[in-house]
Design a protein that fits this description.
Length: about 240
């Protein structure tokens, strides 16, 4: 019994950069971070495993036993929220995780110019990436956009969208997507041009007219052929070789 109690007291514990609990690592794009996993309270050599999300990290042979380090270089905005986990090879329930918190100013993108016909529907989609999340606003012609009944705003963690139903000439202008974060404020302009509504020509009358013209031509050719055949029968001479 004493041996069992002793074994429990000496059960292996993992730490990363000296921390024995899961934690969040604050970092920025372009930086390089080193994560060192170590086994504490071990009574024998322990092999360690590293995972990036669900994918296993390939470690060199000298970087596995009792202590193991991974270097995260060239950190980018896409690395935000990525989890690195260190595990014991013989008992993978013993693990510790580090989540990257990559802070960066707002990144905005979208279709700069849009042309719409009067009376149609338009969507101005401002794609946004930001950490921390930015406060979003729409401006029109350098002033706060006054939302009307045909305006609708939708926001997710990935985009900020302005929908305009049945656009009018008064909707012409430059719309600015403004993202205000604790780090920086960014703006992207969207230029909307509303054209006059084109006159729509009904297709059915055109098709009917084409059919009438075609049938008139066909009947005309048939009538001409009959007249020529009658002339040929009256003139029994061998010279009758009229081409149609």
């Amino acid at each position: 019994m004493d041996c069992m109690l002793h074994g429990v007291a000496k059960s292996s514990v993992l730490s990363v950069n000296g921390k024995t609990e899961n934690y969040i690592l604050d970092t920025e794009p372009g930086l390089q971070e080193s994560l060192k996993c170590a086994v504490q309270n071990h009574i024998r050599d322990e092999e360690l495993l590293w995972y990036r999300e669900d994918g296993r990290v390939d470690l060199k042979s000298g970087n596995k036993i009792n202590s193991s380090s991974v270097c995260v270089s060239g950190i980018s905005e896409d690395d935000n929220g990525i989890t690195f986990t260190c595990k014991l090879q013989r008992n993978q329930s013993v693990s510790i995780s580090v989540v990257l918190n990559v802070t960066f100013p707002p990144l905005l993108s979208g279709n700069d110019f849009q042309t719409a016909e009067e009376g149609s529907d338009v969507k101005l989609v401002c794609n946004v990436k930001s950490n921390p999340q930015a406060q979003m606003m729409w401006y029109k012609n350098n002033g706060i956009l006054n939302l009307e009944n045909h305006h609708q705003i939708q926001q997710t963690s990935k985009y900020f969208q302005l929908s305009i139903t049945k656009v009018k000439k008064s909707d012409n202008g430059t719309y600015s997507c403004i993202a205000n974060s604790l780090i920086e404020t960014k703006t992207k302009d969207f230029h909307l041009i509303v054209k006059d509504k084109g006159s729509t020509v009904p297709i059915e009358p055109i098709i009917a007219a084409c059919v009438v013209v075609f049938l008139t031509l066909v009947f005309g050719v048939i009538a001409r052929r009959k007249r020529i055949m009658k002339l040929c029968r009256k003139d029994q001479g061998p010279q009758c070789r009229t081409a149609l």
